[in-house]
């Protein structure tokens, strides 16, 4: 059995929280909702993903992501150390398996903020995981949010919009859909789904 965080006593399996996955198209507000939720409820553990993407200004290794080389990512995948992984916009992202298991075993609510490919992989490996889809109020609003970031090239934006069409079509694969018209309301709804009060 994996060690539990900070030496916590393992919780019996029938009392452990379900792993919750939050997914949705780029620009829908996943990070904003999660930040708001964790500000109010820091006990919810947000998995830190490994990525081959270069850090953006202000991002810190081990806080926002574990920034790894292509070779390091290859090893993580080959050794089965990732619960899920996906490639997006030329970069790979993955969720370290051991840390998720450790927190769930300790009874800590765990949230993964991942893309559609990753959500599908989690569903395959952990059938009882709760998959939550975060949808935009409208397609027009999603386009506005993506183009308004000002951090990406037109080519990257077009790839993100193409991926968003695919992700929106996959909404029925999820257990629950939340529409992001209000960050505060969506955060409350997500916490309720996770049984965090």
Overview of this protein structure:
- By secondary structure, the chain is an alpha/beta fold.
- The protein has one domain: P-loop containing nucleotide triphosphate hydrolases (Rossmann fold, 3-Layer(aba) Sandwich).
- It has seven helices and nine strands; from the N terminus they run βαβββαββαβαβααβα.
- It has a five-stranded parallel sheet. A four-stranded mixed sheet has the order 4-3-6-5.
- The chain is globular, with a radius of gyration of 17 Å.
- The mean pLDDT is 90.
CATH topology: Rossmann fold
Structural class category: alpha/beta
**What profile does the largest beta sheet have?**
5 strands, parallel
- How many helices? 7
Instruction: Give the name of the CATH superfamily.
Output: P-loop containing nucleotide triphosphate hydrolases
**Low-confidence regions:** none
CATH top-level class: Alpha Beta
Percent of residues in β-strands: 15-25%
Rounded to the nearest angstrom, the radius of gyration is 17 Å
Find the count of extended strands (DSSP E, 2+ residues).
9
Tally of separate domains:
1
Mean pLDDT: 90
* Named CATH architecture: 3-Layer(aba) Sandwich
Question: In percent, how helical is the residue content?
Answer: 25-40%
| Cα shape | globular
For the terminal residues, how far apart are their CA atoms?
A: 29 Å
Strand order of the largest sheet: 2-7-1-8-9
The topology string of helices and strands comes to EHEEEHEEHEHEHHEH
């Amino acid at each position: 059995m994996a060690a539990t965080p900070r030496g916590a006593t393992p919780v019996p399996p029938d009392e452990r929280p379900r792993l919750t996955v939050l997914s949705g198209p780029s620009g829908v507000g996943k990070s904003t909702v999660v930040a708001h939720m964790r500000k109010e409820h820091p006990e919810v553990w947000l998995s830190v993903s490994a990525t081959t993407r270069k850090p953006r200004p202000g991002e810190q290794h081990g806080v926002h992501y574990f920034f790894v080389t292509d070779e390091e990512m290859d090893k993580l995948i080959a050794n089965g150390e990732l619960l899920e992984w996906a490639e997006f916009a030329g970069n790979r992202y993955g969720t370290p398996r051991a840390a998720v298991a450790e927190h769930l075993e300790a009874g800590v609510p765990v949230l993964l903020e991942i893309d559609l490919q990753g959500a599908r992989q989690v569903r395959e490996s952990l059938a009882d995981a709760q998959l939550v889809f975060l949808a935009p109020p409208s397609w027009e609003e999603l386009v506005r949010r993506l183009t308004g970031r000002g951090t990406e090239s037109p080519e990257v934006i077009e790839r993100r919009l193409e991926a968003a069409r695919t992700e929106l079509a996959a909404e029925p694969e999820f257990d629950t859909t939340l529409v992001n018209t209000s960050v505060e309301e969506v955060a409350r709804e997500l916490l309720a789904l996770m049984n965090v009060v």
